[in-house]
Amino acid sequence: MLKILVIDDEPQIRKFLRISLTASGYKVVEAEAGGPGVDAAKAEKPDLVILDLGLPDIDGQEVITAIREDSAVPIIVLSVRADETDKVEALDRGADDYVVKPFGIGELMARIRAASRQRGAAAAGETEVDTLAIGGLTIDLPRRLVIRDGIEQRLSPKEHALLTLLVHNRDKILTHGQILREVWGPAHADDTVYLRVYVNQLRQKLEPDPGRPTLIITEPGVGYRLRTGEGR
């Protein structure tokens, strides 16, 4: 049974999550503030953390940093803060996902499944997924092969590097800065124009309808997510 640590100062939210998560087969541990939450993360060794940012003692952003000092446990932020700067900061500090309150329990459960699956693969020592098949799209990274509806799509080296990063982090939000640093290098961490151009080029080659993408999803003001539907 997977153990989830909920760090939130609102009793109603904790109760709702406890009931919903327990009904789905998870064991739930709770903390009502940041300090106790960090202590619980060390003592309880949860499989996943759901974290509010507006905590009464220390800000949730600091909690992410504290947990990341000695743990790679998946962290899903659950917060009323919808501003893109808060989302980017949380993800850059090490959060794995960000869900804005009010939230749908179905969406949250899908995010939990995706994060748990990625953690399970890492714990089992599985190699990174290098092939992917979604509908009429086949991606084979080692062979540098992309086929959409039976037609091979040729990728430039940078397009291939970008696609590789997205596939290896499928169903996870990657910030603009994270992608730019990985694909173009630290000197280009703020060159979002590069990124928009290459994402649009990839969509032209991967998406059935590039104007209404269903694979490479824009997280407004934050970054992108390669959505495979595996976590749903």
From TrEMBL:
Q: Where along the sequence lies the DNA-binding region?
A: 129-228
PROSITE patterns, alphabetized: OMPR_PHOB (PS51755), RESPONSE_REGULATORY (PS50110)
Family annotation (InterPro entries)? CheY-like_superfamily, OmpR/PhoB-type_DNA-bd, Sig_transdc_resp-reg_receiver, WalR-like, WH-like_DNA-bd_sf
Superkingdom of source: Bacteria
The subcellular localization recorded is: Cytoplasm
A molecular-function term among this protein's GO annotations: identical protein binding
Q: At which residues is 4-aspartylphosphate found?
A: D52
UniProt-listed SUPFAM superfamilies:
CheY-like
Any single Gene Ontology cellular-component annotation: protein-DNA complex
Q: For the Response regulatory domain, which residue ranges apply?
A: 3-116
Q: Which UniProt keywords apply?
A: Cytoplasm, DNA-binding, Phosphoprotein, Transcription, Transcription regulation, Two-component regulatory system
Gene Ontology biological-process entries: positive regulation of DNA-templated transcription
The principal location of this protein is cytoplasm
The yes or no answer to whether the keyword Lipid metabolism is present is no
Q: Is Ribonucleoprotein one of the keywords?
A: no
All residue ranges annotated as the OmpR/PhoB-type domain in the record: 129-228
Give the transmembrane region(s): none
| Name of the featured protein | Fis family transcriptional regulator
Native species of this protein? Skermanella stibiiresistens SB22
